């Protein structure tokens, strides 16, 4: 019990120390020295973001969990090779995208006919998988909350059908919040390629959502670009006729 409490205290201390902006070098030094507390901090700090990223690429909670475990095994094995050309987060995300892409290719080759129809991870227990924090105001009414939940679920569902590599670009930028430069490092591509993939991914997602917005948008407080243009044109025509 004392040993467990001591480890928890050490991890808490490391969390506060490593949280400082200037102290990433200390994290890396501790990891390279084999510090168990540093590894515990790394997992507690990055496990959920890595799982969320991998899940959105693979669309399967079981595969995402297994792949996330492989990601951290690779991180532990190769931390000595980390040369500091990018941030630690970017380096870990690069490994995560690589492992998820490998798993996805394996799945298409060997497992497609065994595809699981499992539902996504329980949203109530896994808030990091949700877009709720960007879609829902904490003071909104129950109806508004339900409407946003419905929109979030639809966006998540349609995002899963956006083809690679465009889906990963949308996830990294619009959900994980990476900069274009960080995305280029994670994906090992040029900035131009990053922007092209993101543009195509966003456009693919938009096209998939347009029918839904046209059908349910008015009820949910949404309006598609096409409807906005039609409404704008109608207003303009009315103004012209009035003159």
Concise account of the structure shown:
The protein has 11 helices and no strands. The protein has 243 residues and is mainly α.
N-end to C-end Cα span: 84 Å
CATH fold name of one domain: Rna Polymerase Sigma Factor, Chain: A
Strand content: under 5%
Specify the CATH class of one domain: Mainly Alpha
Number of helices, counting only DSSP H or I runs of 4 residues or more:
11
Main sheet, how many strands, which sense, barrel? none
N to C succession of SSEs: HHHHHHHHHHH
Low-confidence stretches: 1-5, 112-138
In total, the number of strands is: 0
Shape, principal axes of CA atoms? elongated
Structural class: mainly alpha
- Average pLDDT, rounded to a whole number, is 74
CATH architecture of one domain: Orthogonal Bundle
* Full CATH superfamily name of one domain: RNA polymerase sigma factor, region 2, helix turn helix motif
Helix coverage percent: over 70%
- Over the alpha carbons, how many angstroms does the gyration radius reach? 22 Å
